[in-house]
């Protein structure tokens, strides 16, 4: 048996950042996952560190929107009809968290930690030699009609004013000035200059993992479900080795409840599946920043592999076979927006986002098991918040003064 001060389960961006933050606080740490760092959910996303992520993804409240999504023909949402009864209780809770008051409460809770998201990445990127992957060029959210722009942005921009987050409203000419190779399909756009993006979210996660190892950390493949309590230690099988520690952090993303449910926890975690695919540009066309086509629910972003299209939400069982119909629906719109060429991969990649109905992660001590700590459920902000919540849970474990109020993220809030 090899003993550590802490074990982190999960080698996505959240787990790797947690391990680094514990290590920074002079803890010996083992990072355990069945896959290599940055190979799962942390690989397949838009690679954006959002400053303005204080507006959650909400349940549609208008009958027209509900009917549109119920037809199951939209690019931004797809669902398996047989799966709906299973996810319906979660959707009902999401609807309760979609009221104007709930959105304001969410924004007030999230803004303090979002304000630190880019700087927390910056600390790790500088030490981990990953700075070259980062772009400080902001991102654009484009609207194809003036009516959609006015209806969709009013509340979000009001919150930006409240929290002092910079933005610019662009007309069609200003959009083209910023990104000359975009077709003039957007009537308006919002430019968020303080949002940071990266050319490879998986590459960033791997760079952070290399930093962790270089500083003496241990990374190994193992089965998180082998976790058990022996005397005053938590123990996990890491290959043929057994590793033990008084503190264990569950950062398993969409697989967290596979471990926690047998321990008696019933957190309302749902999985939103999503897809991406890379394309070569035609000619010398280029983008300097990610672009969101709000009407069709996708992001087009420059990556090392090519131009990545990320899909909207799919509701289906986490482990069901891929059904990448959304990429097919998106492609004509994306090609009309930007001169995309041939696909880099033969098939779209699929991943899962772990989401709670109040759209906030769970960060803190598990209520019934000493030394069991939770850091999961980041939804669409996993890459954004990984280093920040990694710092927060590490401060709670080491009994430091937390740099932001941890109460909104408490594991006790779902009692």
Strand content: 25-35%
Distance between the termini: 36 Å
CATH-scheme architecture of the domain at 1-53 and 97-136 and 196-269 and 356-415: 3-Layer(bba) Sandwich
Report the major sheet. 9 strands, mixed
Silhouette? globular
Separate helix tally: 11
Report the count of strand segments: 24
CATH class of the domain at 1-53 and 97-136 and 196-269 and 356-415: Alpha Beta
Q: What's the alpha carbon Rg, rounded to whole Å? A: 21 Å
Arithmetic mean pLDDT: 96
Description:
This protein has 415 residues and is an alpha/beta fold. It is built from eleven helices and 24 strands. Strand 17 (291-293) and strand 18 form a beta hairpin. Helix 1 (13-24) runs parallel beside helix 11. The longest helix has 18 residues, at 146-163.
SSE layout and pairing:
Blueprint: E1 2-3, E2 6-9, H1 13-24, E3 29-33, E4 48-49, H2 63-70, E5 77-79, H3 84-96, H4 100-114, H5 117-127, E6 134-135, E7 139-143, H6 146-163, E8 168-171, H7 172-178, E9 188-192, E10 196-198, H8 201-214, E11 218-221, E12 223-230, E13 233-238, E14 241-245, E15 247-250, H9 256-260, E16 270-281, E17 291-293, E18 298-303, E19 306-310, E20 313-315, H10 325-337, E21 340-343, E22 349-355, E23 362-365, E24 372-376, H11 382-397
Parallel strand pairs: 1-14, 2-3, 2-15, 3-11, 5-20, 7-17, 15-24
Antiparallel strand pairs: 4-10, 6-10, 7-9, 8-9, 12-13, 13-14, 16-19, 16-21, 16-22, 17-18, 18-19, 23-24
Helix pairs in contact: 1-8, 1-11, 5-11
């Amino acid at each position: 048996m090899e003993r550590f001060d802490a074990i982190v389960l999960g080698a996505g961006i959240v787990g790797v950042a947690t391990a680094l933050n514990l290590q920074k606080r002079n803890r010996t740490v083992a990072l355990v996952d069945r896959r290599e760092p940055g190979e799962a959910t942390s690989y397949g996303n838009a690679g954006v560190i959002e400053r303005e992520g204080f507006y959650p993804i909400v349940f549609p409240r208008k009958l027209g929107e509900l009917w549109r999504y119920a037809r199951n023909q939209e690019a931004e949402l797809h669902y398996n009809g047989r799966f709906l009864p299973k996810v319906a209780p979660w959707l009902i809770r999401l609807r309760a968290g979609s009221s104007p008051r709930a959105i304001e409460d969410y924004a007030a809770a999230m803004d303090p930690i979002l304000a630190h998201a880019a700087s927390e990445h910056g600390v790790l990127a500088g030490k981990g030699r990953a700075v070259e992957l980062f772009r400080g060029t902001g991102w654009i959210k484009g609207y194809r009609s003036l009516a959609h722009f006015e209806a969709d942005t009013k509340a979000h921009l009001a919150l930006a004013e409240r929290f002092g987050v910079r933005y610019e409203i662009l007309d069609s000419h200003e959009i083209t000035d910023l990104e000359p190779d975009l077709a003039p399909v957007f009537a308006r756009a919002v430019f968020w200059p303080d949002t940071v993006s990266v050319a490879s979210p998986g590459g960033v996660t791997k760079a952070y993992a290399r930093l962790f190892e270089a500083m003496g950390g241990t990374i190994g493949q193992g089965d998180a479900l082998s976790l058990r309590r022996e005397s005053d230690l938590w123990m996990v099988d890491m290959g043929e080795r057994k590793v033990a520690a008084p503190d264990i952090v569950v950062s398993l993303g969409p697989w967290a409840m596979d471990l926690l449910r047998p321990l008696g926890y019933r957190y309302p975690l749902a999985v939103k599946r999503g897809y991406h695919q890379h394309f070569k540009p035609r000619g010398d066309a280029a983008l300097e920043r990610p672009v969101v086509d709000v009407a069709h629910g996708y992001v087009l972003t420059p990556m090392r592999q090519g131009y990545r299209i990320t899909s909207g939400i799919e509701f289906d069982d986490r482990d069901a076979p891929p059904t990448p119909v959304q990429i097919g629906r998106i492609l004509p719109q994306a090609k009309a927006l930007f001169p995309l060429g041939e696909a880099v991969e033969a098939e779209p990649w699929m991943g899962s986002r772990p989401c709670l109905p109040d759209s906030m992660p769970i960060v803190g001590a598990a209520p019934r098991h000493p030394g069991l700590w939770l850091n999961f459920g980041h939804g669409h902000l996993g890459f954004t918040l990984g280093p920040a919540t990694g710092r927060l849970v590490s401060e709670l474990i080491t009994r430091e003064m937390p740099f932001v109020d941890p109460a909104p993220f408490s594991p006790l809030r779902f009692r």
